[in-house]
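Model: You mentioned two targets. I'll fold them one after the other.
Researcher: Yes, keep them separate.
Model: Target one:
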Amino acid sequence: DLNTEKKVSYVQKQRGNTVYYLKDEFNKKPFQKTDNKWVKEDSKGKNVNISYKNYDGNKLQKDPSALYSYQQDFENDVKVVSGDEFKKIQAPRQELYLFRIKDIKHNKSDLDQIVKTAYPKNYQKMRTEIPGEYSSYLAALEIFGGFEFMGFFLGIAFLAMLASCLMFKILSGANSDKHRYEMLNKLGVRSKVLRRSISREIMVLYALPGILGIVHVLFGLQLFKTLLLAPYRGIWLPFLIFIVLYLIYYLITVKLYERFVLPDVKIDN
């Protein structure tokens, strides 16, 4: 069942390409629509407050544009008229039913089923064309799903490029560093200490660009606030993937560096 927050219906008549509504109904049951600054978030990026703007009959009679997005045919004209004018219109009475649910994502399957029942032949087309926020939600999923895929692909590509450049830069200097470790061997430094030293040196080389990249992303996401409601929501997941892959590159670099530098080092324990 749909977890509805509000239900409302309005009488309408359609004559030609014009849809007429009764002014008095909007005075009794104001039409609500989200305004430009309609959502607020908490520190975790969760939507905590959604504000709606009320449109009464007088306001809609002067400017009915708020009703356009809820018409079956977007080319239809909309007029809000008085009771006497509404009675004179020779057209069958119809009902416009509007309902608001608390969580579109949670009720997506139920909404899909409603559209499938209403439009069994044109389900795939109508699910993105029916009036209301549901079609907007599906359109946003398609658009931002592409952004998400592109961002993930580019992120992996840049991560591989960064880590590979670091790896080859470090390994290219292994031969020159080999003499340094031979000298440490002659001084009696143990193999375990040398391995620990290698791990720490390479860790510093990997950590600095990694931290800089994370800070850059955190500040860069500010630019996407106009496109995304909560650009920082779920950010822990890509950071976790980045850290795991980055750590794998680091461990591979350490092992390869040790093979280049330590094979000829023989230390008496």
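Model: Target two:
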Amino acid sequence: SDDYAELLGLCSHEYFHSWHVKRIRPAPLAGADLSMEAYTRQLWVFEGITSYYDELTLLRAGCVGPEQYLGRLARTLTRLWRTPGRFQQSVAESSFDAWIKLYKADEATPNHTVSYYTKGGVIALCLDLLLRRESAGAQSLDDVMRMLWTRHGASNEPVPEGGFEALVDSLGHATVSRSLRSWVYDRDELPVAELLRDFGVTLRWASARDARDTGGYGEPPPQ
């Protein structure tokens, strides 16, 4: 069921943190004074990428099928596209401002902020697809994560600000590097539809049928 998949996604998310946050850590939070705030622009890396892999891992493990996975992805995209604040705040700014905005939300929050969990996860999807496209399937986000583990997890060396982008740069794809920086530091729309189309998945937008309609997989309802 969707509820059970939701529970598995939460378990997957927190289990992934055993490596990606507990061992691979952002430098500003490593050894931070827990009695006060610590600021980093990398929360999209640590929470957003984890949000991407928590769902992808369920698919890879056979806990959900392709259609259920795409349905859950559609709901994530719907949630992001229903957030006007994505045009007001970059995901790097969202990460840095977490102490003063995310943790102090009010009724206007969706209009001027964006979640580094949600948009960060969609950026991870875009990065994975773009790497696969530009390398003709030879490289993916998995390769970046392996490098991240080798250089920062296994070595216990915290990730400096901009360190993730530097790892992506080392793969040698100028288009990927340029696109990633734009997605992280600018406020433009993400090219999700284009990248999904390259892999045989069509993204269609439809008007919500009611307040409970959060998107999903399949043909859109008649208008």
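Researcher: Noted. Anything on target two?
Model: The radius of gyration is 17 Å.
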